[in-house]
Structure formats: C-alpha cells, structure tokens
Design a protein that fits this description.
With about 160 residues, the chain is α+β, with helices and mostly antiparallel strands. Helix content is about 25%, strand content about 40%. A six-stranded mixed sheet has the order 2-1-6-5-4-3. The radius of gyration is 16 Å and the shape is globular.
C-alpha cells in the first residue's frame, strides 16, 4: 500500500476514535455503513475466541448499524443506566496494517487501547481490531468491525465506546 493511502486510512480511524471520545454520536455513526457488522467475540478458552457470532457467544454482536443506532438512542434518552453519568474515554490506535480486500475494500488491522473514567474509577481496555473499509467519496465507511478484547477482567458493563 502506498503512503498516501496509509495516511488516509489512519486519519479516518483517528476521526472515528475522536468522535467517540467527544461523544459526537452522529459523526461516530456516520463512519459505519448501513450494513456494517460489529462483533466482539467471547473467549472460549485461553487462546480461542468465538469465530461465528451466529454459532457462539459474543460480548457484543450487531449484524448491522441498527444495533449501534439503538445503543446511541438509549444513551441519548437516558435509558442506559450504565451511561449515567456518561464516562470519559480516550481511544488510542496503533500499528495500522492495511491489505487489499475484495473489490475496492480494504482489510485493516490495528492495535487499540482505551482509557476509561466514570464515577471516580479509571480503567483501561486493550486489544486488536480488524476493519473492512469500503470507499465512500473521498473517505471510507466501516463495513465490518471485529474487535478482540485482551483484558482478562472487565469491571464494568462493556459497550461499544469501550472499544
């Protein structure tokens, strides 16, 4: 991949992370295509996690953007007790690797680290994520986000903004 493409993809991912940290849910949702799948698998054993969300357990699985939109609706209307008060987050993305996917899509692998603060408790979440990006104008849309959480212990209700 050329340096310009790598820069554009990194900027898109940084934009998505910044929108989440700013709780700009419209900008965040706009990063995802309507048919975008969001998957956070559950660990089956020490080194094996669920591969197929339809056959195994997942911590989060949305087959399309509607799942994220529902969570945002619950946050905005105060119907999600786990977000009152809304936590503060900082998303860090590193080690961005890009490969050509099918058609014009890109397969992007990243490492991520999220710092989280709510009700005088600071936590951190970290792992790896893979994205399938689809060209959209002069930017991208996320067609799939697959997240692997590497934390052994989770002391709070896990939601999309942790990842």
């Amino acid at each position: 991949m050329n340096a310009q493409l790598h820069f554009q993809v990194e900027q898109f991912l940084y934009h998505m992370a910044a929108a989440c940290d700013a709780q700009d849910w419209d900008q965040y949702l706009d990063c995802f295509s309507e048919d975008s799948e969001f998957h956070l698998p559950q660990w089956d054993s020490e080194h094996v996690y669920t591969q197929d969300p339809k056959k195994g357990m997942s911590l989060i699985y949305y087959p399309n953007r509607g799942g994220l939109e529902d969570r945002v609706y619950r946050i905005r209307t105060g119907k999600a007790a786990s977000t009152i008060p809304m936590p503060r987050t900082v998303h860090l993305i590193s080690n961005v690797r890009i490969a050509q996917g099918q058609a014009d899509e890109l397969e992007v692998q990243v490492n991520w680290h999220t710092l989280y603060y709510r009700l005088q408790v600071a936590e951190q979440f970290f792992g790896r994520a893979s994205y399938r990006l689809r060209p959209h104008g002069d930017s991208w849309k996320i067609a799939r986000k697959h997240v692997v959480l590497l934390n052994d212990t989770i002391n709070s209700v896990l939601d999309f903004y942790h990842l």
